[in-house]
């Protein structure tokens, strides 16, 4: 084979190889472009679509000016600063049911004219007895239990001056005691007696309030 023929063959082979490589490169690029085009469009790492956070519904907290601090506060929501204030805040019911009538009556006859603290302590003793399981299980049952309260005569109470301040206070104290709205200084007491007597019970003394001494 002549030198010129060999050179022509080598040149033709080189051209054929270059064409094949170029076609292969175009095929790979095309696959890459098609692959990228088929992926969903997403933002690059570290960036977030602004529209997600710009929507007004994403606001979690209203402005302070929309709800002033005292917009929903009322005097009735404020806690009473004293037992007297709590008594004044009680609304007198139009009609007392049986147990409330018995409780208010006992407060009226046992502690009329005494301090509100003393009246509350008397009311709490009656309620404590009804819950204790050692006495009757109703307030009227406790009040009318034989030989317990000196104002009970022949199974009944004397007449009550229902228009008096003392009765209004007794009703309010009964309501407060029933709702457990104010702690008594003799909390937990089951017994009491007047200061003028000394029964020698040997019970745990809790408090002395006005004319009564209270025991557990």
From TrEMBL:
InterPro entries: Cell_wall_hydrolase_SleB, SleB_dom1. It comes from Sphingobium naphthae. This is Cell wall hydrolase. Keywords: Hydrolase, Signal. Residues 113-215 form the Cell wall hydrolase SleB domain. One of its GO terms (molecular function) is hydrolase activity. Residues 1-23 form the signal peptide.
